[in-house]
Amino acid sequence: GDSVTQMEGPVTLSEEAFLTINCTYTATGYPSLFWYVQYPGEGLQLLLKATKADDKGSNKGFEATYRKETTSFHLEKGSVQVSDSAVYFCALSSGSARQLTFGSGTQLTVLP
Amino acid sequence: NAGVTQTPKFQVLKTGQSMTLQCAQDMNHEYMSWYRQDPGMGLRLIHYSVGAGITDQGEVPNGYNVSRSTTEDFPLRLLSAAPSQTSVYFCASSLSGPGNTIYFGEGSWLTVV
Predict the structure, then answer these.
(1) Which positions in chain B touch A51 (Cβ < 8 Å)?
(2) What is the pLDDT of residues B87-111, one digit of tens each?
(3) Which of A7, B24, B108, B109 could disulfide-pair with A22, CB 3.0 to 4.6 Å?
(4) Which long-range contacts (CB under 8 A, 24 or more apart) does A9-14 make?
């Protein structure tokens, strides 16, 4: 079945540091890939998505590129802010189903 | 501008009690689903629906019931609550077709004592 493997956390960075959170997947067919963010005490918000190979999703300075050859969708940001502190989830949706398979989440803390 | 609305936000139950978590969406989405979130495990699918009158089981359906009598509503029923059902529950909805954004509610924090 489908699965998502996400970089273990927690991750602690200083403000303005470079962020990478690794995500690899296993899926049948050609999945769509997503990054969701969960701020403390809140629900999940879509951060970015990519629906086919080589697509780059981007939002709020975050980027991720759909790499079919390495089955990866790593999240990057060039300069993190304290307000980026949250839990980040990588997820996929495959076939005609609209259900998501999630990674275990990565807690990011950014220190001033 | 409501999106996906879940109620209640917080609930404490005693073991053996039953309750219903409500979920409504105003975006005319065909697909709706329920997930539970547990520490270190991400979100896991409980039940889902592809349209009114149609429901199916996800990865962790035991102890939960759902129904979909209207497009807008997708309630999740806990039949006899157990401490193992202490979790955060999220309802989600989307249009059909690959790549469409899946929208989540704000979550319902449930504690079973």
Answers:
(1) 98-99
(2) 999 999 998 876 778 899 999 999 9
(3) A7
(4) A9/A105, A9/A106, A9/A107, A9/A108, A10/A106, A10/A107, A10/A108, A10/A109, A11/A106, A11/A107, A11/A108, A11/A109, A12/A108, A12/A109, A12/A110, A12/A111, A13/A80, A13/A108, A13/A109, A13/A110, A13/A111, A14/A110, A14/A111
